[in-house]
Description:
Blueprint: H1 2-20, H2 28-96, H3 104-116, E1 120-127, E2 132-137, H4 154-159, E3 165-166, E4 170-171, E5 177-186, E6 192-201, H5 204-210, E7 219-223, E8 229-232, H6 235-239, H7 248-255, E9 266-269, E10 275-283, E11 288-295, H8 296-299, H9 301-347, H10 362-414, H11 418-433, E12 437-444, E13 449-456, H12 460-465, E14 468-470, H13 474-482, E15 486-488, H14 495-500, H15 505-508, E16 513-521, E17 524-533, H16 541-614, H17 623-653, E18 662-665, H18 666-675, E19 686-690, E20 697-700, H19 702-718, E21 724-731, E22 735-742, H20 776-786, E23 790-796, E24 800-808, H21 811-827
Parallel strand pairs: 19-21
Antiparallel strand pairs: 1-2, 1-6, 3-5, 4-5, 5-6, 7-8, 7-11, 9-10, 10-11, 12-13, 12-17, 13-14, 15-16, 16-17, 18-20, 21-22, 22-24, 23-24
Helix pairs in contact: 1-2, 2-3, 2-9, 9-10, 10-11, 10-16, 11-16, 16-17, 17-20, 19-20
Amino acid sequence: MAHKVIRYALGTLDFSKKVLGPISGGGIRRRLLIWGLGLFGIALIVVVAASYYYTVRQIERDAAELQSEIASVTAERIRDFVQRKIERVSDTANAVSLYPLGSKEQQLLVSLLAKNDASFTDVSIIDAQGMEVLKVSDRRVYFPSDLSNQIKSAKFNKAIKGEDYISPVHTSERFQPYVTLAIPLWGGAQSVAGVIAAEADLSFLWEVVGKIQFGSAGYAYLVDEHGNLIAHKDGSLVLKRMNLGQLDKVQEFIGNRTGSDRNPAHEGRGLLDRSVLATYAPVPDLGWAVILEEPIDAALANVEKLKRYAIVLLVVSLAVGAVIIAWVSGRMTGPIRELREGVATIGSGNLEHRTSIKTGDEIQDLAEEFNRMTDALQNSYATLEQKVEERTKEAETRSRQLSVLNKIGAAVSRSLNLEMVLNEAIEKMIETLNFDASWIYILDPSEEVLILKAYKGIGDEVAHSMDRRKRSVGISGKIFETGERFVFEGVQNDTEYNHLSSRNKLQSLGFSSSAGFPIKANEKVIGVLHLASKAGRHFAPDELQLIESIAQEIGVAAENARLFEQVNQKTAELGHMNQELQEANQAKDEFLNVMSHELRTPLNVITGYAEVLSQGVLGEIQREQMHAVKTISYQSKELLRMINEILQVGSIEAGKVKANCENVNLLDFLFELKSGYEILSKKEISLHWDIPPSLPIVWTDGEKLKHVLQNLVNNAIKFTETGGVTFSACSFSESIEFKVKDTGIGMPQDMLPSIFQMFRQLDSSSTRSYGGSGVGLYIVKKFVDLLGGKIEVESVLGKGSTFTITLSLNAAEKFNASQADLEAKLAS
Length: 828
């Protein structure tokens, strides 16, 4: 109900806003009456609403305490009722245990239990093996054939362990709630000889719950751990087997079956689908809960009376307040109307008029302030035109100054010619700021002196005499060293000027006032700006600030010019170095080509004569001589191979190598490659070929692919002393993969990124163990790129290397086509 009170108060406030909001015109008395009445009404509404809210909350708290106490007491009573039922069964069990199982004495005792307590409908005795030995009921007759085996039942399995058992609530065919109680039958030596079980009708709890009444319409009911209704004053509701799990309080209980209600007397929907204040209390040891509900209309019936009394009080208070406010507003508006008339007279131009109000309050103070304001208006009106003229001149001066700053900034941004920017800055400053002379020094870093870069108003001869200054001498040096401005409004009588300037140069040139400003770039002083005037001059703070801004712009221009000069110098140096590199590279290429061609001729002659000697054409030679001849032939061929590789590198670098693709049967191609290695060198290593029979026909350059694979296999053999070399090929849907794996010396990880560069070897010393020109893998990488593939390497130092080549089945064709298109475009 508390939220209804708040909505009522907010609705009243909204009504007041709608009524008072449009009232911005009319007389003061009328507005005071309306606003005062409105605010007074709002205050009353807030007080009444707060009291109403407090009362409702107090009722809810009282209801929560009452319901919590009743629910807890009822839960304890229900637990006691059930406990007494258990005690009766336990007493019967003690008596039954004195007789043999199934005896007439036991049957008589259990029959008396069922007869004396109407809540027990069925009582049975079960032996230690789980078999019922007798069963009695006040509602039906059981025959021996009705006895059953209970060995798997929960009641037997728990009671046979010596524990009391209470089952969850279950219903009969007529939906009447029951629970099953099972008590162990103790035999000799504290052993369990059997179990006595009884079905208890819970309808005896209906009367217990039905007697609970509180408030004017409060009631209670009982639910089990699943939210099923098991006891209510209206038994027909129980027999409907209603599940109340959708109710808020039942949901809270199911979620917290052992804890107490943390939110008693909570407003929600009740059992009969009405708004109620509800509380629950769990029944100890049974897992049930007592739910208490009271219709909210009945619980808060007195609140409606309180609401009517509050409305009557509000209306009466507003009426009394309206009378009081009307009287007060009338007392206030009289002096205000008089003050308004006086202000209107003054506003019409009669500055001689004065108001005379004697109320002894703020209105009298206001009238006196208006009189003083009129006096001030009379005084200020006389000097207003003069002030306007002065302000206009100041605005024009500031505008000219800003114009100078903008023009100098524009010159800095559009030009990198330092002298032109400096001269333009001096021109604008002299013209706009009314100085007679200006000059600028810029530091020469190489000589550590200040150089005169621009001047005006001092003459060429004077400028020539002061074109260089030491960076630590005179006024310029002081400004440069300290980075601070120096202002001399009268050089004749300024002791600081006379101390810094030993020659009194300014005074000799007829200048009476001067100022110097540091020129900075990147927070570092790089020069000095001087301004001088022949007449005595006062430097205003805003004028000094403007000149400092100009000096900052000049610093930007000087820094830009310096950087531009450095860039031009570096560009020229780089161009010269690039030209030298191109010439050196061209000379290297020419040297390699010439030397390679010149070396091939004598090598071919040496190789030919070695072949002739080894074949015995020039006569039979001895075994030692034959070994020497074969060595000459082998080394000559190696040298010729290296020369051919160098020539090939030259062709690659010149862009003369192209892919000449054709259909290549990979199976025949690889078997031909394998046949060239039928006889290995003297190394005791194995060469294994893994060539699958189902390899496709590919479009590629067979000669270049053969060169690549031979180079990798030769390298693997060359760098492997023990173990073996494995060559494998594998075909995929869109690519073919070749692997060459060895168990040789391997490579460190930091060497892998550079092994495909020209003239790079693992051992580059002059005493290395393995020969070679160092361009083999470079050619391999270039050929693989030319064929549109990629090459990868994995290696561990001391354990071997694995080279993997992957070729797309149509990459070479696409590459050749794109190369042909490029050549056609260049030709056109």
